[in-house]
Amino acid sequence: MIVGLAPGLRGANRTGRPFTGDYTGDLLYDVLRKFGLAEGVYDTRPDDGLELRRARITNAVRCVPPENTPKPSEIATCRRFLTAEIAGMPWLHVILALGVIAHHTVLAALHLRRRLFPFAHGRLHAFPSGLLLADSYHCSRLNITTGKLSVSMFESVFVTLTRRLDAFALNRPEPV
Length: 176
Prior knowledge:
Blueprint: E1 2-4, H1 12-15, H2 23-34, E2 38-39, E3 51-52, E4 57-59, H3 72-87, E5 94-98, H4 100-109, E6 124-126, E7 132-136, H5 141-145, H6 151-171
Parallel strand pairs: 1-4, 1-5, 5-7
Antiparallel strand pairs: 2-3, 6-7
Helix pairs in contact: 3-4
């Protein structure tokens, strides 16, 4: 599961599919295809034929936040949706949090304390339940253009995650 921040005004809010229709989606879906987590053609519309494989995408906040930054009350209000989505996936092995807000929201949804699991790009957090939380800076145009995140930095997170997913697939029986 990949957890982003919130729908983008010109992207997901317009198209109805997370990260579709903006630069962030261009980068994310290219990386997902490169690592075998998506296949097909990606375009700026949700009916482009792209299909996710062994992946699901959601957001910490369900609605487009005013001024592109969600308020704490909006994050808290939407957390129940993320909590339910995680609970509804009993075979979930890995969550990738794109940014600090997504990271903190995942921890809150799992009833885990922030101070025990600090955010850092490329960091992995293994929980007693067996679930793994991975951190990445958000793949936004701003983070790329300012150099906070490079494509190679983003891809390195997926190298680690796909290895972990492959290990889970080898060691765990398929659900019935």
